[in-house]
Amino acid sequence: MKVIKTNKALRGKLAFLRSQGKSIGFVPTMGAFHEGHVSLMRRCVKENDITVVSLFVNPLQFGPREDLARYPRNLKRDIEMASAVNVDFLFVPSLQEIYPEPLSTFVQVGKIGNILCGASRPGHFQGVATVVLKLLNIVQPCVIYLGQKDAQQVAVIKRMIFDLNIPVSVVICPTSREADGLAMSSRNIYLSPTERRDAVVLNKALRMGARLIAFGERDGGKIISKIKKLILEGSSASIDYVSIVEISGFAPVRRISKDVLIVIAVKFGTTRLIDNVIVKVHGK
Amino acid sequence: MKVIKTNKALRGKLAFLRSQGKSIGFVPTMGAFHEGHVSLMRRCVKENDITVVSLFVNPLQFGPREDLARYPRNLKRDIEMASAVNVDFLFVPSLQEIYPEPLSTFVQVGKIGNILCGASRPGHFQGVATVVLKLLNIVQPCVIYLGQKDAQQVAVIKRMIFDLNIPVSVVICPTSREADGLAMSSRNIYLSPTERRDAVVLNKALRMGARLIAFGERDGGKIISKIKKLILEGSSASIDYVSIVEISGFAPVRRISKDVLIVIAVKFGTTRLIDNVIVKVHGK
Known about the structure:
Two copies of one chain form a homodimer.
Chain A: E1 2-4, H1 7-19, E2 24-29, H2 35-47, E3 50-55, H3 75-84, E4 89-91, H4 95-98, E5 106-108, H5 117-120, H6 124-139, E6 143-147, H7 151-163, E7 169-173, H8 193-198, H9 200-214, H10 220-233, E8 238-246, E9 260-268, E10 271-279
Parallel strand pairs in A: 1-4, 2-3, 2-6, 3-4, 6-7
Antiparallel strand pairs in A: 8-9, 9-10
Helix pairs in contact in A: 6-7, 9-10
């Protein structure tokens, strides 16, 4: 595996490989790798001739009061983990490389980026979409691999790719979980031991919501109330949102009649965690 | 020359040609071709293996009170003109092909898109940048050819390409002019015979401004006053703006110390025309 630091060097290598007809797959990350990231890399390596992983902690997607400064960074370990699964190129650009000047041009993501996590984190999805577009333009992959854990990010990026005719396929990989069901996240290391134990309630609550739908409940409001109750009873958490939405458009669903996504964002102490579950609805 | 109507058909043809190592040049247009367009096509044909010209009257860049409905359209003549200079593909997508659904994602162009023409035409440059990015993603050319006539459009697109790392070079071609100096524009056909005669003042005023700078005038304000006076004396025009700006950033220049652009927008009756001149400043 080669660690590459500049756009120019990466483009040079990839232009050559592309001219040889190699397929290029891409996994964008902010580093601090866990099994979730590694599962994306494995799948990308399996499905493409060349796998590019980017590691860039993107300031544009952090709010002024968020955790940019303390976001976990461990390049040495990340290099080992990516290398172990046969990633070809780990692209680790500097801030200067990605933002040589303050941007004038941004991707504006519309309504889908302004609800839920977008409402709690103003500008977050504009920052995500803008950097992902920049990285797509640098790497020019055939396929981009994204994790379902960040469901709204997936929806925003898919919509951007559709709206802007970006020539790339999207593969969504399932959320990797700890043995007790907690969704893997680079932010889990912020949790105190008590918070870590409490955080299991997220997955438990989502599974309960899915079960209610499976057993015939179609009233979104009722399901949301029960999920909130379970979360607040079983932990010291404060709820940012619990919502049931359409899978691609993220429009809120009151009466469930087709497949939906239950999405939640909850704070344990100062740590904000998100999780979601796709619920298939049969007999439509 | 092949006339192509769908993204899919165009992408298919170009993917094949790209795999053969052919270079692809691209000229985006709104049709109603004149010598300005044709000069871009000629240069593109000369410098690339394959020339793609798009012809799409983009509603997104017209304001609600602008001339979208009456914008000149003459596909038959346009096909003949493009064919005559050996364009390979004339891409003429339908509205449905470019906007299958109302967009959620847009390109937000920042300050450079909100001044001058952007102030007079709110949303115009967002519409331009968004459709140009979509077309770039469909065509994936090595080079895009733009006309200097639309100087602010050039600046907005160059900035977008820089900010978003779009893998394309930009070639700017000089403004084509009628024998009497009027910049060629598809909108010139709107002019009444009197307005057409009056419109010559635009180029005259710009040349006077350039001469003042060449003779040592460095006070932007004084030059602008003289240009405005000349335009208002010699015609029935109403001035939208006359400004002296930096060439790439379009920041207004009060004291001229390096190369500048004099840009003007003037209305003759209901027809709004723009023109500009680049003025080199020696002995910096």
